[in-house]
Structures are given as C-alpha cells and as structure tokens.
Write a structure and sequence with these properties.
With about 375 residues, the chain is of the alpha+beta class. It folds into 2 domains: about 5-135, Creatinase/prolidase N-terminal domain (Creatine Amidinohydrolase, Chain A, domain 1, 3-Layer(aba) Sandwich), CATH 3.40.350; about 140-365, Alpha-Beta Complex (Creatine Amidinohydrolase). Helices cover about 35% and strands about 20% of the residues. The chain has 10 helices and 19 strands. It has helices at about 5-15, 25-30, 60-65, 85-95, 110-120, 130-135, 140-165, 170-185, 245-265, 275-285; strands spanning about 20, 45, 55-60, 75, 100-105, 125-130, 195-200, 220-225, 230, 230-235, 235-240, 300, 305-310, 325, 330-335, 335-340, 345, 350-355, 365. The structure holds manganese (II) ion (MN). Manganese (II) ion (MN) binds near residues 235, 305, 326 and 328.
C-alpha cells in the first residue's frame, strides 16, 4: 500500500479514530492516483486503521479509478440509487459501526455530513482531517517533484504560445483562447485555473480577469497560468512589454524582478516563511511601492494551489527540503499598470529550484 495511506492509517490508530472519510478531490488523488471532481455526486475514500481502504464512486467513474492505478476495492452507485445507504453497507461490511470519524471539515458540505449522520446516528466527528492533510502534503517526494517539473514545463510552453499570440488589436480574451487551444492540441486538457492575460491598467486588478478590450501598444502584459499534469499543478506568472511601456511601468518591473530574484536566493532550509516574505517586501517597500504589494509572497502548491506553507507575515514555519510554494511578488498601481513575476519552487538541501524556466528578463514584443 502507498506510504501516504499507511501514514494515514497510523494517524487514525494513534488518535483512536475508527474511520477517515476523505472527500476533497485533490486529497483523494494524493492517496489513490485518481482525480475526479464529482460535483454533486459522491466520491469518497474510506480509510480504516487496520482494514483495507476502499473508494466509493459514481458507477461511471469506477473504471477510470482502476485505470488510474487504484488496486483496492472501488464500489460504484447509479444515479437513481441512494449513495449514503449503499456506502454505509460497504462500511459496515468492512468495519462494523465506526464511532469516531475523521472528516475533512473544510470541504464536507453540511448536507453530506447530515447524510452520514442519518446512516450512523451515534457517530462522532472529533477530528478535522483538513489539518492532517496540510501537514501530510507539506513535504513532497521525489516522484511528486518530478510530476511538478513536468507541469512546469507545460507552463513554459504556454508562455511561449502566449507571447507569440500578442498582436495589435487582439484582445486579452483572444490571447487566452490561443494559449488554451494550443495546450489542448498538445494533450494538456486542464489548466490549473482560468488563464489570466491582463494588459496595461487592467493588470493592476490582480483578481480581475481577461477582458474584451484590445491590447494596446506600449503597455505591460501580465500572464498568470498553469496546467495540471497527472493531478499535479503548475502556476507561474510573467509580465512582458508590448512596444515601449512608460518609465513608471518599467520601474515597477525592475523593482518587482529584483524582489523576486532576492526571494529566490533567500529561499533555503532554515529561513521562515515570514522572513522570506519580508525579503521581497523590504525591496518593494524601499523602492516606494510597498502599499501596492497587496498579497502574500506565495502559497504552497502540489495537487492544488492552496496548500502549506503560506509565505506570509506571521507564519513562522521553518522551510525544509521538499516544501513547494510560489514566489510571486506583485506591484499593482491602480489605473496605471500591474506587474507580477512568479515561479513555483521546491526547497533543496541548500536552496531552491524553480519548476518554470521562462526567462524573467523583461521581454520586448513588437
Ligand atoms: Mn500563484
């Protein structure tokens, strides 16, 4: 059985839990190698301290789970059947009536929890396994890092396509379409999030999106994109110059790049997440743009872009080899321009290595 599952079984035994109900799709992938977002249907991995785990899935997913390499039981249900009644039958056959449940409280909707309770009226839910998962996924194995490298190489290709797609009169949305079409032609069927292309002042709104307006000459153009490779993601940002942007735009690029390089240099075992955030933030603040760097330096990533460690003020977690996270300082001046330069990295014995290798020297596109 996979080490990840053995570790969870040991955790259950040590914490007197009778069953783990894993429902977060990226966590199911982490344990089984099978990724699927079941939307309103039920997909769950049931793990016990001393019995074999099994998957419970919509019938239409059963073969896909096996094809993905899951070699334990997978029980399916049809749409017209009562999933929680069926699942309870399988649980009872394996483990009787579990009393103490570990569930992912960050992910399990109240309605599904109530359905579990209706099958197991005496069940208790003392443990939030979402916290366990954050720590379990914190240090990546060599195999995981190889998947992340492959996802990073796909992101590098996406940048190449995107930079070539910038043309006068083309809109941000059209450039996004070019990128995603080219990725699909290459067999990359999932981006890790909606691809972002934002030009000029639109890039100053980091939670905005690509718009229908044509990209103007003499502006910066910000790209933020990533792909999913065997369930592992990439996430990277580059900002390029279309024509000749004004001096202010070029200055914020220069400062942001300096901050990104400095943080890449400082990322190594022993530094804390908060200290690393400060390395980049100090450079941006000294240059007078501190108020325009309005998010943390980075986020952990792996099977999702929302993992530990969070690289921000107040997080005293010490960085260790195998931790993976983004380094993405950004400067956003409302109504003027926005810059973000981002690599996801993994911590090595004495530094860090990026998963993406697209040049960060300012690229001029005519
Ligand atoms: Mn990111």
């Amino acid at each position: 059985m996979k080490k990840q599952l053995l570790d969870l079984q040991e955790y259950l035994a040590q914490n007197n839990l009778d069953i783990a109900y894993i429902s977060n799709p990226s966590d199911i992938n982490y344990f089984t190698g099978f990724y699927s977002d079941p939307v309103e249907r039920i997909l769950a991995l049931l793990v016990f301290p001393d019995k074999d785990p099994f998957l419970f899935a919509p019938q239409l997913e059963v073969e896909a789970a096996k094809d993905a390499g899951w070699d334990k039981d997978v029980f399916g249900y049809l749409d017209h059947e009562k999933p929680f009644e069926l699942m309870a039958g399988h649980i009872k056959a394996v483990a009787g009536t579990p009393a103490k449940w570990g569930i992912e409280k960050d992910d399990l909707p109240v309605q599904k929890l109530e359905a579990i309770k209706s099958q197991f009226p005496d069940a208790q839910f003392p443990t939030n396994l979402s916290r366990y998962m954050e720590n379990a996924k914190l240090i990546k194995t060599t195999a995981e890092i190889n998947e992340l490298k492959a996802a990073g190489a796909e992101a590098d290709y996406a940048f190449e396509v995107g930079f070539n797609a910038i043309k006068e009169g083309r809109t941000e949305q059209e450039v996004v379409a070019e990128i995603e079409y080219a990725m699909m032609r290459k067999g990359v069927m999932h981006m890790s999030f909606d691809t972002i292309v934002q030009a000029g002042a639109n890039a100053a709104n980091p939670h905005g999106g690509p718009e229908k307006n044509p990209i103007e000459k003499d502006e910066l153009v910000l790209f933020d994109l990533g792909t999913v490779h065997n369930g592992y993601i990439s996430d990277s940002s580059r900002t390029v110059a279309f024509g000749k942007p004004d001096a202010k735009s070029l200055d914020i690029y220069k400062v942001d790049l300096e901050a990104q390089y400095a943080a890449m240099d400082a990322a190594k075992p022993g530094i804390t997440a908060a200290e690393l955030d400060k390395v980049a933030r100090d450079i941006i603040t000294k240059a007078g743009y501190g108020e325009y760097f309005i998010h943390r330096l980075g986020h952990g990533m792996g099977t999702s872009e929302h993992e530990f460690p969070s690289i921000m003020e107040g997080n005293d977690m010490v960085l260790k080899p195998g931790m993976c996270f983004s380094i993405e300082p950004g400067i956003y001046i409302p109504n003027v321009a926005g810059v973000r330069i981002e690599d996801c990295v993994y911590i090595t014995e004495d530094g860090c290595e990026p998963f993406t290798h697209t040049s960060k020297e300012l690229k001029y596109i005519d």
